[in-house]
Structures are given as C-alpha cells and as structure tokens.
Amino acid sequence: MKDMSLGAHLLVGLAIAATVRATERSRDCPKVCTCEVRPWFTPRSAYMEAPTTDCSDLSLTAFPHNLPSDTQVVLLQSNNISQIKEPIDLLVNLTEIDLSQNNFFAIGDINLGQASRLMSLHLEENRLTELPKGCLSGLGNLQELFINHNHISRVAHGAFSGLARLLRLHLNANRLASIESQWFKDTPSLEILAIGENAIAQIQDMNFKPLVSLRSLVMAGMRLTQLGDKTLVGLDSLESISLYDNGFRSVPHAALQRVPSLKFLDLNKNPIQRIKQGDFRNMLHLKELGINNMAELVSIDGLALDNLPELTKIEATNNPKLCFIHPNAFYRVPQMETLMISSNALSALYRGTVESLPKLQEISLHSNPIRCDCVNRWINAKRTRIRFMEPQSLFCVDPPEFKGQRVREVPFREMTDTCLPLISSESFPSGLNMEQGSSVSLHCRATGQPEPEMYWITPAGDKLLPHMATGKYRVHLEGTLDIVEVAGEDSGLYTCVAHNLLGSDLRTAVITVNGSWPRRANDSFKLRVREVTSHSILVTWEAVSNSVTASVSWSAAGWVTYTVRAPTDLHLYNLTHLNPATEHELCVRLADLHGQTKTTCVNVTTNKGLDHSAKGKEASAGLATVTALGTVLGVVSLACLYFSWNMDCGCLQNDTQNEAVVALPLDESCVPLMDNRDMGGEEDVPTLELEATVIDVSAAARKSRDGKGHLSCNWPAFEC
C-alpha cells in the first residue's frame, strides 16, 4: 500500500514540475509566437519530443528576443527577416532552425556562431547568391542543410569545411552552371544529395567520386542530355538515382553500369525514343524502374531488359507514343511481379512477353487502344494467372465488331489465332522538316500473328531490309530507319511495310529538307514487256521517285477493264489465265507527292495455242491419259467453282523468299489469285511476298491452302 502511495505522489510531482515548466516557457515566450513541446524527428528519423518556438508567418523583420532557454526547435519561416545580429548559439540546446522564405542575401547575414548541437538548418527560398569558404565551419554537428531555391551561382572550395557529419544536402533549384568534386571533399558522410533544377548541361567524369557514402542522388530538371561513362564512378553505395525531367534521348546505360548497388532508377519525363537492346542489362540489384511520362517513347525493343535478377516492378505509364513492347523485351527477369503499362498507345501485349516473367502477378494495361484479335487472345484465357488492374477500363477499339466492349468480356473463341499486321499510327510521323546535315530516326512498329517482318522503301524506290546498312541508311530489326546527314536528294516519301503470311500494312512519311525537296528530272518511266505466252504477259517498269500509289489495269476487246493496286516498291506484274491469241491493253498508273499522275500503256497480244493437228495426234496417242486428266480437271473445276462462290477476290502467296511476280488473270468475273515465281535474269527484282495493297485490317481473313502450298484469302484488294 505504501508503494502505491509513493508512486502516486511521484506522478503528481512530475505533473506539477511539468506544469511549472510549461508555465515558465509560456511566460518567456514572445507574445506573437507559440511555445510548446512538439513531436520532432532526428535526421535519422528517430522520434523525440522537443521544446519548440513557432514564430512562422508573422511578417517579422528581426529575430525575436528572449526565447525560452530550453528551446530546441525554432520555426521562423515565411517572415521578412534579412539579418540576425545576435549569435543563435546563445540557444545552447538548439537542434533545428528554419529560416526559409525570408530575405537573406548572404550566409554572413546570419550569425550562426558555434551552434554545436545544431543538426538541421533550413535556408530555402531566400536570396543567397554564393557559399563562401568556411561559411558553415562552426556547425560541426550539422546533419541536414537545405539551401535549395536560392540564387546561388558560386560555391567556393571549402564552403562545406567542418561539415564532416553532414548527411543530407539540398542544393537544387539554384543557378549553378557546373559541379566540382572539390565541394564534396569535406562531406565524406553525405548520404543524400539533391542538386537538380540547376542549369548544368554537362557533368564531368569523377565529379561525385568523393561521395563514398552517398545513397541517393537527385539530378532532376537539369537539362542533361548525356552522362559520360565515368560520371558516376565511385558511387559504390548509391541505391537511388533520379534523372527525372532531363533531355536524355537515349538511356545512359554505360554510366549506370558503374553503379553496382543501384536499386531504384527514375528516368521519367525524358525524350527517350526507344528502350534499346541492352539498355538495362546486368543491373544485379535494380528493384524498381520508372519510365513514365515520356512524350517521345515509341517502343521497348527486344532484350531491352536483360539479366535483372532482383527487378520486381516496372512503371511505364502515360507515354502517348509507346505502341510496341517486343515479345522478348524482358529476358532473365525472374522476380518481376508488377508491370504498369497503362495510358499508352499499346494496341497489343504479346503473350510471350508475359510468359517470360514467371512471377508476374499483376498488370496495369487499361487506357490503351487495345486491338481485340489474336495477339491479345491470351488475355481471355481461363487459366491466366495474371490479375488485371482496373479491368473495367480495358476496352477494345478494334475490330469494329468488338469496339467498345471490355476486353475481358470478349469470348475467347471469337478471337482468331492469326491476324494481319497493323502499324501503329502513334509511332509514325506524317511529315518532318529536316535541316541539311542533320540525322533522323523514323520508328515503325507493327503487331500481328505471325509476328510481322519490316522493310522500308526510299523516295528513289530502293528497298531496305532489316540489318541493312549503307552510308546513308540503316534499318533496325524492330523497324526503325536511321537516316544520317540528310541532304536535299534525301527528301521525299519514305514508306514502311509490315508483312506476314496473311497480308501487309504500310505507312508513309514525307521528309523535306530546309522546307522543300527537289523535283527530279528522271520521274518518267517506261513500261516493258518481258515475256509473253499463250496465257500470260509479264511486264516491268522502272522505279519512280516519291510514288504514292501504283495501279495496273488491263482489258481486252469485249471484256471489262480490271484494276489492281500495288505497293510502290513493286515494279513487275505477271498476268495469267489469259486467253490465247488475244490483244490486251495494259496500263500502269503512278501518282506522286505533288499530285501528278503518270500513265504508260502498251498493247500486247498473247501467243497462239497448239494447232488442232498436233492436238489430234497427241489425243490419239494418249486417249486414256486425256480421259483421266479430264476427270481430274472436272473435279478441280467443280472445286474451283465452289470456292469462287465463297470468295470475292483472292491472292496467292508463295512460301519462297525469292523474287516475287504478281500473277493476275483476265478470264474471271473478279481478279483471281496472285502467283509468285523466281524471275532471275538481267535485273534484280524486288522481293515481295504479299498482297499488292494495304488491306482492311478489320476484316477477318478467310484462309485455305491449295495443293501447292499457296495461301488464299478474301482481302478486299482489287477494284474490278
């Protein structure tokens, strides 16, 4: 009982002492300020309760007098103080002082004295212009220094002398034009450095080498366009880098490779156009990657992320041109759990991309223009382990029959297992005006199943295949065309073609040099007949610069005129199934960028067939054979008739990769199938494995295989 009574008396005594102390603080506190004990966190985030004097936002012009002697925290932000004459070290317990948003022009206007216990100093949003040598040397225990949002343009060598215990330094949003390694020789314990929003266009190699303890580096908004390979050398403890809102057009991968402990990388809001192969490779401790809000980002290419064993999260959202993620973009990324790719221009996400991430748990894919076809068919598979964030915002925009439906509600079986190529319009500029001598990259990305192959056609009509490199052009596998040192003769129409077994898609871009392009004198073309048989005519013509469209038409006396559209890189046609001994008029019509058209025509008569005597001898010699063949032909004819009722127009595509000739007959009510054949001979014939026009990608392709391995389909390709 006595023990309980003693404890009660002790508590009462403590309460009385606290009351007396609070009364004394209240009596010593300036009338306009608030003096009380408040929660306070040390620079190491340890919680404490500290006597605090709050005189903020009072329009004070001088430092208040007679503060309580036990004050640890002084808050004086948002006043009009321009000078402190009395040394603040009179407050022997002072651990933090906030002088932000005042009118100090120089550090010397603040009489800091020898505040040996001061740990945090806030001088943000004043008018400081420089940091002289030794200006803070009396603050040996200082751990946090905030001097951001001032006008500092000069930092003297030795400005931070005496600050060996400094952990956090905020120098961002000043007027610095360079960074010098000498600044950091006196701050070996520094763990956080924020130096962004300074107009520093270039950082020298080894600038940060003295910062052996640095864990976080913020270089946001600095107009940086590149980092040297050795810029980050020495930062072996660095775990986080922010390069937000700079001018990087490519990932500074060589510099990042020098940071072995990197865990968090912020590359948001940079004009990077491609995440290329190897950009993020062998970063063994990287856990999170941010590539959001990139206005120019078009694609994440194959093997862009390679051997990242600890990566768990990627954020790639709000990129208005991001239209393509390669099926093999993520390679050896075993711990990925979250993939954030919402609000982009993605029409598809390949199943192979998801299957390459064995621990993937959730995807944010909403607010993309999803094409509900074969590429995205896996999304509706019943056994998918992936959780889709905000599935109610995941809609189909194509094909028309599914437009507006939620992707997860489209029946799995209604999506075909193969589909036509589609080039994203978001990645492709309609026109560019270039300065002479500059370089440009045209990005062309397509999705489809089978995965499309790409090639380019130059204004001169030359065909450029992937991995083809000349002195002027280079084509990358994913579809990017690099043009170096642009000259006047390089202006004109550039065409990207994406093709697979089912068809093709193409898009064009006009490049002008210094606002115009020359009109070429060799734009006329000749139509030549290369071969004539009793049932076919093979014609060729020369390439014409800057052709936008090409069409071939033909007719015979008493027959309707047929027209077929063709890609501008196709310069040869083979008309088949023609009647023997019949005169045909054949014309090729080309239209160019200037709106001018050129048409060349030729009259050709097919050869005569075998004469009747020869046919009679052959028939009498092999009547049984003819009878058998007649039976077979009858069956084939019936089959052809059946298929002709079920198909409007058709096309044939040989599986070979050799030179292509389109074969078009004349003796049917609509243009029948095209044929491929190996020409060989006197000139190179451009390779074309596809239908001779851009197809309606929203139409479902009906397909079948004939006995020769040709693929027939009902694309609306021809004008009859």
TrEMBL record:
Domain named Fibronectin type-III: residues: 523-609
Domain Ig-like: 421-514
Name under which the protein is recorded: Leucine rich repeat neuronal 3
SUPFAM superfamilies with a match to the protein in the record: Fibronectin type III, Immunoglobulin, L domain-like
Keywords assigned by UniProt, alphabetized: Disulfide bond, Glycoprotein, Immunoglobulin domain, Leucine-rich repeat, Membrane, Repeat, Signal, Transmembrane, Transmembrane helix
Signal peptide: 1-22
Organism: Callorhinchus milii
CDD domains: FN3
